[in-house]
Records
---
Amino acid sequence: MKKLFYWGLLLTLTSCFPTKTAPKIKTYKLQKAKRLDSSLPKDVAFIFQDKKDEGTFYQFLQSKYSLDEEQMNDAIPFVVDNRTYFFNFYERDRTSEAFLLGAMLAVAVAGGDPSGADYTVSGSQKWYIALLVFDEEEKDALDEEHPHRKRIIAYLDLLRREYYGLYSPIEQEFRTGN
């Protein structure tokens, strides 16, 4: 029983406990934008992980919608089912961090001041794109109550896939014969 206790104590002292974790998003996620970053609005956002270099999504949108620098600061218009919607996009990073309990206890046992040092270690940094969509009445178009929510999500998913090169409008046009 003593061996089990000592093994448990050793494991605890050498462990690190996560204090912040970057979300794992396989395709996309719908959630309040504020949960990704506190500086974002409370509206629902279409969020996906950006695995490309910072600024690449900005350049992609600028090229796709033929926008100049000034227009990129405004909401970007798009049409779904003959209705105009607008979206704003935000690039945010999240870093996973862990607290090193063993290091703090080792300093304390050695007679040092454990409160003066930083016992966190940063892990992987991930970038995310958050798209906030609203209609012409400036209502949150990704809200569960919005009547065209599913069609807008489908459009945003196509946009995400096109950004990653998983979907090509030219290829789609060729397949449908238009």
Note: The first helix runs from residue 2 to 13.
---
Amino acid sequence: MPFLFFFGIATATHLVSTFFINLPLLAYAPYLSLVFLKRPLKNLLWQSLFCGLSIDILQSSLPFGYSALIYLIVSLILYKQKWVFFHDKLLSLAFFSSLFSLLHSLLQILFFDLTKKNLLFSWKTLLSELLLMPLGDGLYAFLAFTLPYLLYLQVKQKGFRFLFMEKLR
């Protein structure tokens, strides 16, 4: 089941990167956040490696393995902090995805010198990379993972008909 979930997200990531080129979401952040909360470190590192390599396949501007390395480092840093988050809280996945995105952006800025590319620092760059992107990834995690899960729970509990029926009061 996790591999089916991974390939579904991979397909969605490839489609989003094809049609919405300027949308800078970390599509694997919610998936890896679920892996953080539910699986041991060994599984997390393998999943992070595969997610990073699939991102490396999509991009040609950075050296191959760069995203995989950053995903692995972020995973190692965040795994030690998973005790802070509750598995059953609705916003844990969105918050953890935002934290993953924030650390990813920080490491990417710090390691950008390794790619021998010039990065111009400005307030606009810092605002977009360290505030707006993590918030966007958290919103993406909430809309794409938490809300469908809540809908699934409602359908499972009340049946499919509750979606189309209104109370007459």
Note: The two ends are 42 Å apart (CA to CA).
